[in-house]
Structure formats: structure tokens, C-alpha cells
TrEMBL record:
<dbReference type="InterPro" id="IPR024278">
    <property type="entry name" value="DUF3823_N"/>
</dbReference>
<feature type="signal peptide">
    <location>
        <begin position="1"/>
        <end position="17"/>
    </location>
</feature>
<dbReference type="Pfam" id="PF12866">
    <property type="entry name" value="DUF3823"/>
</dbReference>
<feature type="domain" description="DUF3823">
    <location>
        <begin position="33"/>
        <end position="119"/>
    </location>
</feature>
<protein>
    <recommendedName>
        <fullName>DUF3823 domain-containing protein</fullName>
    </recommendedName>
</protein>
<keyword id="KW-0732">Signal</keyword>
Length: 228
């Protein structure tokens, strides 16, 4: 009798599991969003880092108190999420080295392209030259809107193309906390990064930061250099 009861219990559980499986067949995400975040002043793509550069936030307007969907952007300012359900969303870039951006209402159906214009805390223009065993950088820092105090700037060099403030082999750092911002903005910085191997390819980048709450850096474009 006990054996028959066990078999019956197993049969009921199997039937329940089968029913649950049949009623759990939700359609997968059928749409996506991609695009770029650009500097509103220069029109160039926002230079950041990955994964800690900036995020894109989606809020589904079809649901009250919907949980935001956040995903990381790329170091070159581009972004993509191909796993989104069709619908109308509020979309905005967040947590980057830029002032608060405007939110866009986007109808996402299929793959939709969106562009955001933001005002970065700082804009950096830079050049780099190869010399025997070293690289010399020259750069300027500018800004269109006054925000927090400028605190630091750095010349970075790495053998990895994903160079950032957290990924580098050598650096020259300037502590700017005691320097007036107007003096910083009027200065052309020159840094020398020595002790490099001839015939090797390096990636060079300038990073600078303000005293912003998230400690995010603004960046120059990455410069690729092969030493003689």
C-alpha cells in the first residue's frame, strides 16, 4: 500500500511540473536599442571607459513603477542592448562624466537607433609623439560649463587598447587640487613617459577628473603609437 502511495505522489508531481512548464512559455525579448552618446559642443563621441564609463537607463512606460533597465555603454560612446521587449520607454544616459542629460521617449520596435547629446565635465584635446624609448604627450583641458573643481590630469600609456585610469602600464599624474581652474584651462601640459621598448606598439590616453560625486574621468581619444 505504501509503495502504491509513493507512485501516486510521483505521478501527481510530474503532472504538476508538466503543467507549470506549459504555462511558463513567455515570449523572449523581440527588440533592441543602439546608438551613441556625443559631446554636445564638439559633436564627437563621448570618450569614457568600460565598464565604468556610463550607463543607459530604460524605463518601460507600459508599467507603473517599472524597475529601470540599466546597461553599460562602450568606451567610444556607443551602446547597444538587443534584448528588449517592444514598447515605449523613457531612455537616458546616466552615471557618466557629464552633466544630467535630457530624457527621450522612445518607441522600441525592432532595432532602434538613438543619439544623446551631453555636456561633459571636461573636454581634452591631445597629441603624442614617439621618441627613442619614450612617448611625449601634449594636451589641453577645456570645458563649456563650470562644474566641480578640476582635481587631476594624467598621461597614460599601455600595451592594451582598453587603456583607462584603471588599466595602464605607466602614468604621469598632476595633482591639481591646489591650482586655480582658470590656470589649468590656460595651460598646455607636456608629459614624458620614459622606459618604453623600441619596436613595440603602445596606446596613449589623457584622463582628467573634477571633484564629481561618482569620481568619473573624462578622456581624450586613444592614440596608437609604435616606438622606433
Amino acid at each position: 500500500m505504501h509503495y502504491r502511495n509513493v507512485l501516486l505522489a510521483i505521478s501527481v508531481l510530474a503532472a504538476f511540473a508538466s503543467c507549470t512548464k506549459n504555462t511558463d512559455n513567455y515570449n523572449p525579448p523581440d527588440a533592441g536599442i543602439h546608438g551613441a552618446v556625443v559631446d554636445a559642443i564638439t559633436g564627437d563621441s563621448l570618450q569614457s571607459e568600460q565598464p565604468n564609463g556610463f550607463r543607459i537607463r530604460l524605463i518601460d512606460e507600459g508599467y507603473q513603477d517599472a524597475t529601470p533597465i540599466d546597461f553599460w555603454g562602450m568606451a567610444d560612446g556607443s551602446f547597444e542592448n538587443s534584448k528588449v521587449f517592444s514598447g515605449t520607454y523613457k531612455v537616458v544616459p546616466i552615471e557618466g562624466a557629464f552633466f544630467p542629460a535630457d530624457t527621450q521617449e522612445v518607441a522600441i520596435k525592432g532595432m532602434v537607433e538613438v543619439q544623446f547629446k551631453v555636456t561633459p565635465f571636461l573636454t581634452i584635446t591631445a597629441s603624442a609623439a614617439a621618441e627613442e624609448g619614450q612617448i611625449v604627450t601634449k594636451y589641453r583641458i577645456s570645458r563649456d560649463s563650470v562644474g566641480d573643481k578640476i582635481t587631476v590630469c594624467k598621461s597614460l600609456v599601455s600595451t592594451h587598447p582598453t587603456i583607462s585610469n584603471s588599466i595602464f602600464d605607466k602614468a604621469v599624474t598632476h595633482d591639481l587640487t591646489g591650482t586655480d581652474d582658470n590656470e589649468i584651462l590656460a595651460t598646455e601640459f607636456t608629459d614624458t613617459l620614459p622606459g618604453l621598448e623600441g619596436g613595440k606598439t603602445y596606446y596613449v590616453r589623457i584622463a582628467a577628473a573634477t571633484n564629481n560625486a561618482l569620481n568619473k574621468y573624462n578622456y581624450s581619444r586613444i592614440i596608437k603609437i609604435t616606438l622606433p
